[in-house]
Amino acid sequence: MRKSIWVIAHHQETKIKPVTFELLNIAASLARKIDAEVNALVLGPSVAHLSPQLIGLCDHVYLFEDPLLTEYHYETYQQIFLRMIDKYHPDILLVSSILRGTDCFPRLAAHFKAHYVSGCMDLSYLPDQGLIQYHQAVYEGRSILEGAFKLDRMAVIMTLPHVFTTPAEKGQKETIVSPLQIPLSPMEFITRRVSSIKTVSFSLGEALVVVAGGRGMQGAGGFKLLAELAGKLHGAVGATKAAVEAGWCEHRFQIGQTGSLISPEVYIACGISGSIHHLAGIQGAQTVIAINQDPDAPIFKRSDYGITGNVFEIIPALIQSIDNFSGV
Ligand SMILES: Cc1cc2nc3c(=O)[nH]c(=O)nc-3n(C[C@H](O)[C@H](O)[C@H](O)COP(=O)(O)OP(=O)(O)OC[C@H]3O[C@@H](n4cnc5c(N)ncnc54)[C@H](O)[C@@H]3O)c2cc1C
Prior knowledge:
single chain; Rossmann fold; 2 domains; 27% strand; binds flavin-adenine dinucleotide
């Protein structure tokens, strides 16, 4: 039987999220080498409107719609994935670590005695050995591990966001769209969410641009400046532990060993020295830009571009240039 790689689609409202296209791209590249089909699974209370965005990029789009999926609930998702795997026998499940439901996947891997890779940063096929090779971020991103496995049983692979490229152009595949045929009954679930507390949406893990500040921002006012720059760049704000401990922003903004691991396309470090604990959180960042008044600050060693100077002069100048560029 032909092998199959299943991508779990990440979406919000009317859009399939870019990270899904990254996964479909790496899935397609691997599929060509191991002769597999690529399937996307889209789950939610109402998802049929999303399927056109996936046409041409995979062989099959499976839709699973159920009002039970209005809120994320571990038990419900776990049952869906268990039944999907039992019925369709995927060889590889590819999931982004920013997908809600990530708590399901290590358990699924254990249940099916599957290969399990978390923090995956790349995937390739070694034809001579017949192995799938991967690199994964371990120890809070402080090390990168190289590993390989034979596809003798299912593999569950959780990837870091923004580490794979998206397809350059619209795919040419003929895509079949159909419902995922598995039963799900509300009566099977012992717990039911009766209400949820609304929080302001926060997308540090998903943001393509992150503007982060450290002790050099000198206070909550400095973070307002960062928020303004981040807003102009459609990015998110992040912080060092020092800034969080000073009370300038909440812990959910913290990047690093004891904060979030992020992998944006552009990371702008403002008034950040670049301690190993902080750098552990930006291993996956593609382009790092640092602004620091100390030319010997360690952050410059991890930077692609460095600006030596005072953040309170440079950030307003950057904001002004962006405004000039966009004609504001
Ligand atoms: C177990 C453990 C876990 C940790 N986990 C984390 C973590 O998850 N994340 C994290 O960030 N840290 C973490 N830390 C703390 C970490 O070691 C550093 O202390 C922290 O990252 C330093 O933050 P900072 O760069 O903001 O401050 P500093 O090291 O004080 O650096 C401030 C920088 O701002 C520059 N500066 C000052 N004023 C200006 C200005 N006007 N214009 C331009 N530049 C200016 C200075 O030159 C300096 O380089 C951890 C530490 C431990 C022990």
